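User: Just a sanity check before I run the rest of the batch. Below are the structure tokens for the first item. I only need the designed sequence back.
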């Protein structure tokens, strides 16, 4: 079997959806807000391996350092992104990817015992931090900030920074409850069209790039695999699927090994019932 032409590392295969529409771009550019780990559940990793380069925002110092070590040729901002500059009380969680600066979720996280550490981190806006990208082609921007999506979008100047595609985590943290109503209008008013909800993220395409609406309107599927996309074993999809296959195999193997014993039990049960 030949090696895949693109490997997905993302939590929900959203990188495959992006790749479907943008694979014709050579050495493209991305912005990853809430980048987290450079490998595990990374939306940018597959693109990085294709020669793309981008800008990361990650206030968790552990993940920021991992990004710097793994991606020395990219820009890593160890800051929180919001609608103002200053400092933000930031809660780092035991769970990878759930750290947040959204105060409305902090109390429930504390109650659940998820908070590993709280600290004040520097805070900036997309408009200020990405001023150097004004007028440049940014092919996608991902926002995954556990409840701070609206504030990030309010700090973005869509007149000067216009990613071709914007994808935003659209459910409450660790939940299937929709959370996009507070910020959907900000994207629409900025000239972006909603094209897909994949169960976790909402995808928007800039009005200037209607050619992407069709390719990005469908979730990742078997046709993407047939077209050359693969899934890294670190992906939650791959690891959980492998665990299920292993469990099914063991179940089947156990069923086969115990078949003679089950037949004997069945025979004894029938013979015993005849003497009652």
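Assistant: Here's the designed sequence for the first item:
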């Amino acid at each position: 079997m030949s090696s895949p032409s693109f490997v997905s590392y993302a939590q929900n295969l959203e990188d495959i959806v992006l790749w479907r529409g943008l694979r014709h771009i050579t050495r493209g550019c991305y912005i990853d807000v809430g980048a987290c780990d450079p490998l595990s559940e990374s939306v940018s990793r597959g693109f990085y391996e294709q020669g793309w380069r981008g800008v990361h925002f990650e206030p968790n110092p552990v993940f920021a350092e991992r990004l710097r070590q793994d991606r020395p040729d990219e820009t890593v901002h160890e800051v929180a992104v919001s609608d103002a500059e200053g400092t933000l009380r930031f809660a780092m969680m035991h769970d990878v990817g759930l750290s947040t600066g959204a105060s409305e979720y902090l109390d429930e996280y504390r109650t659940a015992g998820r908070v590993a550490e709280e600290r004040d981190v520097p805070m900036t806006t997309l408009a200020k931090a990405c001023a150097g990208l004004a007028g440049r082609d940014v092919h996608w921007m991902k926002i995954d900030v556990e409840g701070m999506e609206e504030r990030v979008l309010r700090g973005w100047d869509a007149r000067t920074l216009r990613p071709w595609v914007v994808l935003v985590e659209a459910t409450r943290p660790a939940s299937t409850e929709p959370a996009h109503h507070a910020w959907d209008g900000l994207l629409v008013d900025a000239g972006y069209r909603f094209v897909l909800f994949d169960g976790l993220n909402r995808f928007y395409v800039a009005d200037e790039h209607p050619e992407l609406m069709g390719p990005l309107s469908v979730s990742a599927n078997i046709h993407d695999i047939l077209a050359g996309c693969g899934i890294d074993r670190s992906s939650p999809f791959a690891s959980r699927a492998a665990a299920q296959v292993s469990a099914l195999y063991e179940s089947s193997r156990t069923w086969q090994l115990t078949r003679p014993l089950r037949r004997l039990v069945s025979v004894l049960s029938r013979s015993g019932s005849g003497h009652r």
